[in-house]
Amino acid sequence: MLLGRTANGLYWMNRYIERAENMARLVDAGLRMALTRTQSASEEWNSVLLSAGSDVAFTQKYQDYTAANVADFLLRDTSNPSSTMAAIETARNNARMVRTALTRETWESINEAWMSLKRMLARPIDERDLPSVLDAIKRETALIRGSFYGTMLRNEIFDFSQLGTYVERADNTARILDVKYYVLLPSISWVGSTLDNYQWESILRSVSAHRSYRWVYDADYKPTNIADYLILNVRMPRSLTFCYRFLAEHLKFLGDDYGERHACHATADKTQAMLRAGSIKDIFDAGLHEFLANFIRDNTRLGDEIAQDYRFN
Amino acid sequence: MRLAAFDEMLPEVSGLRRPYSAYDRWLKEQDPARLTEKMQDAERVFRKTGITFAVYGEQEASERLIPFDIVPRIISGNEWRRLTQGIEQRVQALNAFLDDIYHRQEILRAGRVPRELIAKNEAFLPEMIGVRPPAGVYTHIIGVDIVRISEDEFYVLEDNARTPSGVSYMLENRETMMQLFPELFQKIKVRPVENYPQLLRQSLAAVRPQSTKGTPTIAVLTPGSFNSAYFEHAFLADQMGVQLVEGQDLRVVDGHVAMRTTEGYKQIDVLYRRVDDSFLDPLTFRPDSALGIPGIMDVYRAGNITIANAPGTGIADDKAIYSYMPEIVEFYTGRKAILGNIPTWRCSEPDSLKYVLEHIDELVIKEVHGSGGYGMLVGPAATKKECEDFSKKLAAKPSNYIAQPTLALSTCPILTDKGLAPRHVDLRPYVLVSDRIQIVPGGLTRVALKEGSLVVNSSQGGGTKDTWVLDD
């Protein structure tokens, strides 16, 4: 038996842990682009902000798209609710609220991540330290994930946590693709240009997949392969298909445990079936942007339905 | 003014006391540098596990640690037996007093406690008149604050019959000591405290409503994660294996209190609440309370839920009632109180007020309804100006205050940068009441960390120690 409020806390705790890490990943990819392509740096930072869903809030505060400004806004500015620091703090507040549902190891890893990031992000980041700060953020969230997977019982508590993780991750991957969908389109004038090559690598970097891509596809970056990898690959841990495989699975566990299926089950199953049946060619033919926009909308709806069906809205 | 205090380890006159002899032998073999290291280890453990508390009214409030000292406070088996007899008697009397005061009020008719002390008291809840809680128990969890001033003299400083806190520190202090010094626990037989959560759970289950079918569902009610004692609420719920709920999770469904779960509403039979009376039910008490459950008092009056501690128990630990405790104990148990009170002047009485005003620089003066060491004056430690200002407050509303002599509380050594140094301590043992009375051997020792200070409250810079009752 689980309180609705506890399910809510677990769900959001994990969404925010995922988000804290995704912000670091986005800044990492942006930094790489800015270092190698100095002319288009500000454009690149703009798309980082778009992917983070923070572009409007950013422009209210800053005029220049510089590494220092973007990193500050996405990593340490607590007035931005999605910044790594704000996300880790929200995750920890949720963890505190659901403490009795977590193993000691899990709680301590979240608490320690919060303590160490709070210390590290207390002052503006020196640009020379940015890479090590990004590493530290990823390390802290990796420790949380490790303690969580290593010690938590696979019950409803685990299920609600995973739902939060995968709803957030699917949203993140879809947004990254949608911001850059145009560089993946087979438009003649751009194909094969070096600019595209960097853009493509940047997409892969923002989901930490620039190395694993080569294990699966040819060494050369091809837009259809990149889209295929991030959307349809079953083995790639940040692909949309991968996220929905686990969303459907954890919802099925909950449905079986409670002996009841809800609207969220139908929504997740439908999206999963669509991803399974789809080919990347079909997706491009029907329009990549339309596909992603629909996906993001349905994914948001799934989150709402889960909250409604399990009484934590 | 410095008071000559009785040191529980090494009194000046008689030398090392027996309960400490084995510990002292061990201590002498230790490298001081290693002990300092252990002290730092302890702080890391506490911070890592998030054992923190919030201090009200401070800007940079968020979270602080209660300092922990690694020198245990040691009590012999014999001393403990004497203490427990006194505590049991007192706790029986507290429950009998509550039952009487909300029913026939014999003690008022007998003139042993003044009627106006009850009628005008905010802690007295007219809503509880004629209500008999399940199993007849009013105060289920009690913390009795005890001070010592010599080898044989123990006094009750105050009773905590509402929602005594701090038991999680008792448990975590022991856990920490066992992690830091496992070898000590092999050398010295210390009675265990770690089964407290199980005892609490059994105790709560034993006072379930009569109508409960099967195993009762128990929950801990917390004001929420921003409450200063939230860590303890979560800790106890976790250790007992019960739900930690907030008011927003609960509502009245079909005459029972129920919690909103992922599968719909589930009935609760016993609620261990850590929310004050006035916030418990917005329909009965404070209408602006968002922490309570509308209608829970109706369920309670119908006998369909146990609330621990019962609403209205505050009348038993009120500081104005405190001075009558010797009479109360004798009235209900038929015997003189085994554990005495500290002599107390009731400032509402003109003669006492006169005495208190004349001797203000020697006395400790407390607000009748205050807690946590706020709003009190420690005469000998106060400046002339502070005494004068307080005298004015006192004269303006005498019935709001009581006064007590400044006792030389016993001391116990703590580890400082310069080695061991004596500091004043008190003791809060925890008592569980159901169909029986159980007292966990030990309790929370609070220690004033500042040299010479008598204020042990954590909100005022006090720390804690592990408390050992020897199995001898």
UniProtKB/TrEMBL annotation, chain A:
This is Putative alpha-E superfamily protein. Residues 2-310 form the DUF403 domain. InterPro entries: ATP-dep_Glu-Cys_Ligase-2 (IPR051680), DUF403 (IPR007296).
